[in-house]
Design a protein that fits this description.
Radius of gyration: 19 Å
CATH topology of the largest domain: GMP Synthetase, Chain A, domain 3
Shape: globular
Strand content: 15-25%
Number of domains: 2
Length: about 150
């Protein structure tokens, strides 16, 4: 078995609920819509999660389509998910995260349906983000560092 590769990201709270996230040499802003107390300057974390799933599936599609003889003329993923916000707002004893996530692949191709279905089944099995959402992950606090002025 190969040694796992470690990926890293950081999140730095800015004004209000705006957060600057960074990984390698890239950064972007995550925020909340005004209805949830933000300034609407970026996706919120749960939207970014859905976007990450769609992006991951798209990348896997690009990488593996040729191996299945599927020509991708165009590829879209529409992703949606359901969250009961009472969990986040601590109003009831429901989980704060997604209960359901659904996605639709829109594939423009002249490849036969059977070949596309075989390819999609493989694609779903190899998407790291999809796998991380569908199966338990060991999520734990590594450390708390308290800094004083």
């Amino acid at each position: 078995m190969a040694t796992p590769q470690t990926f890293k990201a950081s999140a730095h709270l800015q004004e209000g609920v705006q957060v600057k996230v960074a990984s390698r040499n890239f950064e972007f802003i995550i925020d909340e819509p005004k209805s949830l107390g933000g300034t609407d300057t970026g996706m919120n974390p749960v939207e970014a999660l859905l976007a990450s799933l769609g992006a991951c599936q798209s990348i896997v599609a690009r990488v593996y389509a040729p191996k299945f003889g599927v020509e991708l003329k165009d590829f879209f993923v529409d992703v949606e998910g359901d969250i009961d916000l009472d969990g986040f707002f601590n109003k009831s004893d429901v989980r704060p995260g997604y209960s359901d996530i659904r996605y639709t692949f829109r594939i423009k191709t002249d490849s036969p349906k059977e070949k596309v279905e075989e390819f999609v089944k493989f694609l779903e099995s190899k998407c790291p983000v999809g796998d991380s959402l569908a199966n338990p992950v060991n999520l734990k606090l590594k450390d708390i560092i308290i800094e004083s002025e």
